[in-house]
């Protein structure tokens, strides 16, 4: 460039001196040599600066060739096979306490937010009207019970009359039989007397006996006949008395049936009265409101002194069961066969952690697998039960749920910070015997307690880089940091799994 400037200057000079006499050749040669000298000095300066810059870059590169890192060994251990999902805490039972009787609230025996036990007294209502109704119902029951007793007394009296009528009937039946026996005897005597009268009458006609003797046998026969007629009349009278006894007995039995019906009616009235009494007692029991479940009380929506109506739509308070409590979460339907398979061996363990506290977990047990798959999401709902003795779980809370299906023995694991993300996926830097590193792609199946389970990648016994990956490329030299010099080297490291490999690195 300086050469071109000098050349242009020379042309200008030649133009400016055209009218003049030409200079001597020696001066012209000196000017040309000066211009060439200046151009050479410029080119030399440019190359010198470029060389110094290249030397500086090579020097910096040589300084970064040995990268301080920390390393760890690829190991094997037994790890759980788990499914993870976002879970929602829900109460197994939520009860809205509403009054079943009308009245004024005269007592509140708990505070909002308090844990209450099943059967604990929560509210009392004014119960004076219920007590008055109970006393009235008790009086009605007592009166109708007296009517039952009166009907029973009448039944007892009429049963006695039946027994008396039966005794009279039995006595008169004996008299009838006695009269019939007398008739039979007298009838035999009458027949004998008639036979004697006929026989002695024939003898009288033959002159064998006297008239007085014959008339005596005739008189005996007539007397026996009259006695026989009297016996028949006595039997008829006795049978008439017996029929009267039977009528009296039937009437007494009818009276007894009436008494029994009266007793049944009186007892039905008593039962109705007792039902009314029991109902008033139930209404009285509604004046005391008890907790139906163990749970935590919400806000008290109706306070002391307010009048409430039976079956009001506004609850007095809502109780929510938190011990035990449930966590619902969903897993892909493709995992359902695994869940069903391992559930046959017993109950599966479910652990939940909190989004802001991954170190603290709450253990539970899987108790429910839904009977349908959600077609919109392709997932199936599972529910775990948790004792929640410490009360860390609250209904409506979102948690991280981990379902443990089984354990995988001899799984290959590496520290999670060793696995990095690159344009082509996840990878680790494996340390070679010559203290260089190689970029090795990995396939991670799960992460457990700070360890990534490797399905494909480095083998147990390999050394991998766990810190310092930001300055590494495949084939780069490393040195293992010690406790003394690891402080300064950490400044250049980037956060875990956000590593972006430099151009010229290996596959990632």
Give structural notes.
This protein is of the alpha+beta class. The chain has five domains: 2-64; 68-73 and 411-492, conserved putative lor/sdh protein from methanococcus maripaludis s2 fold (Beta Barrel), CATH 2.40.420; 85-90 and 319-408, Efflux pump adaptor protein, beta barrel domain (Elongation Factor Tu (Ef-tu), domain 3), CATH 2.40.30.170; 98-123 and 290-318, Beta Barrel (OB fold (Dihydrolipoamide Acetyltransferase, E2P)); 129-285, Orthogonal Bundle (Helix Hairpins). 44% of the residues lie in helices and 29% in strands. It is built from six helices and 22 strands. The strands form four sheets. Strands 1, 16, 17, 18, 21 and 22 form a six-stranded mixed β-sheet that branches. The protein has a six-stranded antiparallel beta barrel with strand order 2-11-14-13-12-15. A four-stranded antiparallel β-sheet has the order 3-10-8-5, with no helix packed on it. β12 (349-354) and β13 (357-374) form a beta hairpin. α1 (2-16) runs antiparallel to α2 (25-64). The chain is rod-shaped, with a radius of gyration of 62 Å. The model is unreliable at 1-23, 49-53, 55-64 and 484-508 (pLDDT under 50).
Keywords:
conserved putative lor/sdh protein from methanococcus maripaludis s2 fold; disordered C terminus; disordered N terminus; alpha+beta; six-stranded antiparallel barrel; Elongation Factor Tu (Ef-tu), domain 3; 5 domains; six-stranded mixed sheet; 508 residues; 29% strand; 44% helix; 22 strands; single chain
């Amino acid at each position: 460039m300086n050469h071109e400037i000098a050349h242009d200057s020379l042309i200008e000079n030649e133009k400016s001196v055209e009218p003049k006499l030409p200079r001597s050749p020696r001066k012209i040669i000196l000017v040309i040599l000066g211009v060439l000298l200046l151009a050479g000095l410029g080119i030399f300066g440019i190359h010198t600066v470029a060389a110094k810059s290249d030397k500086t870059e090579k020097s910096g590169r040589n300084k970064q060739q040995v990268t301080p890192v920390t390393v760890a060994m690829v190991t094997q251990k037994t790890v759980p096979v788990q499914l993870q999902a976002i879970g929602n805490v829900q109460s197994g039972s939520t009860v809205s306490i509403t009054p079943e009787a009308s009245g004024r609230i005269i007592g509140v025996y708990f505070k909002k937010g308090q844990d209450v036990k099943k059967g604990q007294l929560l509210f009392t209502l004014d119960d004076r009207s219920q007590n008055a109704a109970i006393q009235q119902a008790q009086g009605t029951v007592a009166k109708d019970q007296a009517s039952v007793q009166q009907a029973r007394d009448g039944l007892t009296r009429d049963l006695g009359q039946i027994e008396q009528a039966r005794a009279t009937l039995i006595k008169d039946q004996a008299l009838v039989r006695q009269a019939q026996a007398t008739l039979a005897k007298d009838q035999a005597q009458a027949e004998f007397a008639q036979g004697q009268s006929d026989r002695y009458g024939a003898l009288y006609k033959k002159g064998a006996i006297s008239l007085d003797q014959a008339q005596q046998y005739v008189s005996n026969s007539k007397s026996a006949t009259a006695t026989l007629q009297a016996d028949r009349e006595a039997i008829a009278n006795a049978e008439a008395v017996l029929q009267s006894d039977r009528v009296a007995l039937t009437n007494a039995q009818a009276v007894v049936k009436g008494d029994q019906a009266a007793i049944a009616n009186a007892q039905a009235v008593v039962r109705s009265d007792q039902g009314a009494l029991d109902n008033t007692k139930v209404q009285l029991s509604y004046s005391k409101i008890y907790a139906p479940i163990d749970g935590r009380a919400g806000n008290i929506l109706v306070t002391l002194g307010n009048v409430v109506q039976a079956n009001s739509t506004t609850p007095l308070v809502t109780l929510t069961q938190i011990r035990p409590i449930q966590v619902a979460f969903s897993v892909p339907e493709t995992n359902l066969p695994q869940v069903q398979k391992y559930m046959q061996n017993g109950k599966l363990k479910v652990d939940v952690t909190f989004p802001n506290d991954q170190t603290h977990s709450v253990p539970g047990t899987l108790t429910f697998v839904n009977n349908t798959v959600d077609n919109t999401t392709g997932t199936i709902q599972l529910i775990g039960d948790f004792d929640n003795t410490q009360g860390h779980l609250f209904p409506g809370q979102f948690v991280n749920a981990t379902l443990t299906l089984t354990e995988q023995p001899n799984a290959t694991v590496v520290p999670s910070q060793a696995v990095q993300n690159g344009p082509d996926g996840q990878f680790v830097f494996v340390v070679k015997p010559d203290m260089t590193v190689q970029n090795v792609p990995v396939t991670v199946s799960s992460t457990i307690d700070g360890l990534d389970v490797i399905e494909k990648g480095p083998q147990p016994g390999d050394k991998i880089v766990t810190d310092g990956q930001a300055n590494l490329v495949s084939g780069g030299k490393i040195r293992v940091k010690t406790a003394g010099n690891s402080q300064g080297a950490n400044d250049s490291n980037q956060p875990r799994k956000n590593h972006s490999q430099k151009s010229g690195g290996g596959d990632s």
